[in-house]
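REQUEST FORM: STRUCTURE PREDICTION
Request ID: SP-0412
Submitted by: Lab K.M.
Chain count: 1
Length (residues): 252
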Amino acid sequence: MKYYARKYLLVLMTAAIGLGLGSQVTAEVMLAEDFEAYDLGTWPSSWVPDANANDSGNNYVAQDPLDSGNKTLRLFGSMGGCWAALAYHPISFTAEFTVETRIYNGSETLTGCHPDRGGIVMRHGTYWYGRTNPSRRLIQFRGDGAVRATGATILGTYETDRWYDVKVHYYREGTDLSLRYWVDGDDFGEVHVTIEDLEKELSFDHFELSVQEGSAYFDDLEVTEGSAPIPEPATLGLIGLGLIPLIRRRRR
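STATUS: Completed
RESULT:
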């Protein structure tokens, strides 16, 4: 009953905003990063490097691969091995928030023990080892060309050597968790999971950008507290059938 009550409330809020009644509602920005404040070739000082991100020759603030006037964070996971590159930023997660960022995946041939590309993660602490520093992966660009949501849900496919605009809405109520996904503005509906260990979920205190192998670039990250609209039932039905592919559009 609580889930349907929340949907009804959000529908009313959306209608109010459409009528101009929600104009005074503002979202609190919990984390914002565009990497423009850092010098090219340096590590961004407000982020903590882990694993292969400590290799300063391959992990640094870099020019946008498609726009030399824009700065991004370049991460590079060890090729052919098992040594990812991870960057952490402290954050106080709330029960409901929205993440927006841009991710560009390189086209290296992946042969390591976890051959995946870029992803964004909620993490406890600043160390990769899951038994002591648990995490929740929000989205992962896999090495097989699939985009995976939290858990095992596949959203669609992607191309390398181009930017994707990613948006994830997180809502937690008790042990019920829903995450809604957009890629390049296309709505992929909600994924619902049951939180197995609530204590671990509540322990997450860092936002993670990471790449398992090869290169990935990150930019225009913003995490805001608050809600997002509910997808239409028809969209959810198509998501369940896996009938909506990612529409490949070039940002630039």
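NOTES: Residues 28-241 form a domain with the Jelly Rolls fold (CATH 2.60.120.560).
Reviewed by: T.R.
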